[in-house]
Amino acid sequence: MTPDAASGPHRPDRSFLFVLGSSRSDGNSETLARAAAAHLPADVPRHWVDLNRLSLPDFQDGRHEAAGHRAGETEELLRQATVEATDIVIVSPLYWYSLSAQTKRYLDYWSGWLNVPGSDFKERMAGGTLWGVTAMADDDHVVADGLTTGLSHSAAYLRMRFGGVLTGTGSRPGRVRADERAMASAETFFLREAPLARFPYEQEAGAAA
């Protein structure tokens, strides 16, 4: 895996990992993500990983196997890229009102990294920020609520911040550029403060206190 790093001096306090999960390259979700990334400060490192280009097998849950789980080279590089980033951006088109299969497989690997003996994955992820970018055929972006909820809950479980999901309309390649609202939102998407993610029951308990 060779991440595509942006130019500019290194800033150890913030580093973005963009995880591309579309089944085609240069799709609308990636176009929208790159438009948003262009408005980050020039000295913020950013890395792009295309899951389609990685030789990553389907996740196998080995928690209850005597031999345990052994990470391959590609998986280990992906894990290192994940824990070293302060901001992780899930870039996935909306497939059947949820994440793509490639993206879901990547998140399934998080389960394995949580359960490796001696793993500090959860501790290293805590305090970081999870973001989402998705494009869809529908003009009403409320249909992406399921994808947003899944990412928000994942962030809450790991005690991460959640910056929300940047949504755009586009089916044919490049169509998202015509979504003026999405392109305008991309300009400030990564510049806003991301709150700590919380499960709904935590929010209700806080409101009742």
Plain-language structure description:
- The chain has 209 residues and is of the alpha/beta class.
- 34% of the residues lie in helices and 15% in strands.
- The protein has 7 helices and 5 strands.
- The protein has helices at residues 28-37, 73-84, 101-115, 121-125, 145-157, 180-186, 200-208, and strands spanning 16-20, 46-50, 87-91, 129-136, 161-169.
- Strands 2-1-3-4-5 form a 5-stranded parallel beta sheet, with helices on both faces.
- Strand 1, helix 1 (28-37) and strand 2 (46-50) form a beta-alpha-beta unit.
- Helix 1 (28-37) crosses helix 6.
- The radius of gyration is 17 Å and the shape is globular.
- The relative contact order is 0.17.
- The model is unreliable at 1-11 (pLDDT under 50).
Mean pLDDT: 88
Task: Give the percentage of residues in beta strands.
Answer: 15-25%
Q: Give the N-to-C terminal Cα separation.
A: 48 Å
Helicity, in percent? 25-40%
Question: What's the story with the biggest beta sheet?
Answer: 5 strands, parallel
Number of helices: 7
Which strand order spans the largest sheet, edge to edge or round the barrel?
2-1-3-4-5
List the helices and strands in order: EHEHEHHEHEHH
Low-confidence stretches: 1-11
* Rg, Cα atoms, Å: 17 Å
How many DSSP E strands?
Answer: 5
Shape: globular
Q: Decide which structural class fits the backbone.
A: alpha/beta
Give the oligomeric state of the chains in this entry, treating copies of one chain as homo and distinct chains as hetero.
Answer: single chain
